[in-house]
Write a structure and sequence with these properties.
Two copies of one chain form a homodimer. With about 325 residues, chain A is of the alpha/beta class. Chain A is about 45% helix and about 15% strand. Chains A and B meet through helix 12 of A and helix 12 of B.
């Protein structure tokens, strides 16, 4: 272990801190999917989590880890996805203001959700440069603390608590899988597994249309997504140095999946498990079904990351 | 109690019989929906049940209640819905043939599901008369036993076991709600509540486009649906004398809901609970939200009956 790596104690403290603000989500199984995969799959249902995704874990821990003085002017972030809602709700739970920079093209339903938690939304042009510039202006104007969606150890320690609960209920798994986008969840997951169940393999699924994690992991250096494109819109971000570090050190494999495989896996979960998952969330199951032979007979935990979909715009 | 009414012992025996063949489904809650209703709602998730609906309970009990001699030529029914799949799977589990009469207009996905369980599908014209005639011919040809979807005490005792599990986990509920179509589920539910928790009210929700139960209950005699029409396609059947008897005796209220209320309640559950329910299944929640004032502050169990929807044809 590097002396600077997040420790097991950090993660356990994060869990104690966030517990009053999150759901302990259920673990579900499906006879049909087990039969299809010829494996025993345990789905950790973070789609049932507050705000409909695991991101509330990291956002809550990041805010609670800061002292009252640091938080006196609130928190800020840029996101059009689940991290935006997570920061908005975590700020509301702590009675501090939240400022969320969103592209002016963000779906109204997502803007309303963030505003519904009492956060102020600041619109910007839909480019990475505009996002970062608008965020900087917002931080300067308000004095709020920026909470990055994944390049932040307190966020990673918070995301790690999903795997902590999974291993507590299902010790001795052969494999734990989750998707990789910016790498916050897979980093936290890999750390927990490393500390508590070192014989368990950690595997990430990634859309081939946004495959920077796969390429960076192979190359041993950061290679960004230039034109990421996938239905799995929660996984378009590129790794940071921090998340690449954890992935290099603690993740055993990254499996790429194409769009049709993502849609098929999403549909399978909807039809057979009768639960709603978003496209990003289907990626690890798609990866598993893609490399079925390697997982035959194994016990596999999959973190189902979220269920926030636009019901008027489904891919099937 | 009438000497001929289903007894608590009948229901407990049914439960012991079917237990190896069914899931004990989870009970979920939603903070958002509780807030909206200003009540504590416990959702019994039969959408997670085998075949995706509670009907496997009644079908399994009906088959297991018959002796080997009666079953030697298999079982038959007419249904294009969840009862068809339930009979097909229950027959398969017992290694006997099943013959399912379905209208030639039935969706292919439902026909395939039934055939997937190994049942023989016999097509007929899409009228009630053709169904009944084709069923009669099938029974004559094969010697199979007809298992009616609800006008059958063994089926009702089986359906009753969902409420048995609900009351075991959540004793002392103020109200238990479920939908009413032909009346099998509400009859079984009302009987269990009567025996185990007589202070608990039993309330049914019914689509106003197929309101025979409401009218029959008010009139004290069977009044059929002539041209039933509702998205809640599992609730188009009319009561039988048997189910009207149980409803008259043990059900406290029937609440009508319109199509828009059904769609809104279905959407609410999809969006907030991230679980898939079919339109029929949304009816009791729609009823509750329709008469919110009467249920304020109460603890309410709702049986979520099923999750079999055509994902290419959603009402929103």
């Amino acid at each position: 272990m590097d002396t600077t790596d997040i420790t097991l104690e950090n993660i356990q403290q994060a869990y104690a801190r966030i517990k009053p603000y999150i759901h302990r989500t259920p673990i579900l199984t499906s006879g049909t999917i087990n039969k299809m995969a010829d494996a025993s799959i345990y789905f950790k249902c973070e789609n049932f989590q507050k705000i409909g995704a695991f991101k509330i874990r990291g956002a809550t821990n990041a805010i609670l880890s800061l002292g009252a003085a640091a938080l006196k002017n609130g928190v800020a972030t840029h996101s059009s996805g689940n991290h935006a809602q997570a920061i908005a709700l975590a700020a509301k739970n702590n009675n501090i203001p939240a400022y969320i920079v969103m592209p002016e093209t963000a779906p109204k339903v997502k803007v309303s959700a963030v505003q519904g938690y009492g956060a102020e939304v600041i619109f910007c042009a839909p480019t990475q440069a505009a996002r970062e510039e608008t965020l900087e202006q917002t931080v300067t104007r308000t004095g709020a603390v920026f909470i990055h969606p994944y390049d932040n150890d307190a966020v990673i320690a918070g995301q790690a608590t999903a795997a902590l609960e999974l291993l507590e209920e299902q010790p001795g798994l052969d494999v734990v899988m989750c998707p990789v986008g910016g790498g916050g969840l897979i980093s936290g997951t890999a750390l927990v597994v490393h500390y508590l169940s070192p014989q368990t393999r950690v595997v990430a699924g990634e859309p081939s249309g946004a495959d920077d994690a796969f390429r960076s992991w192979k190359a041993g250096k950061l290679l960004k997504n230039e034109q990421p494109a996938s239905l799995a819109d929660g996984l378009l971000a590129s790794l940071s140095g921090r998340t690449l570090h954890y992935i290099q050190k603690y993740v055993d494999d990254i499996i790429l999946v194409d769009e049709q495989e993502i849609i098929a896996a999403m549909r399978l979960v909807w039809e057979r498990m009768k639960i709603i998952i978003e496209p990003s969330c289907a990626v690890p199951l798609a990866a598993l079904l893609n490399e079925k032979a390697a997982y035959r007979g194994k016990s596999i935990g999959i973190i189902l990351t979220g269920g926030n979909v636009d019901l008027r715009n489904l891919p099937f």
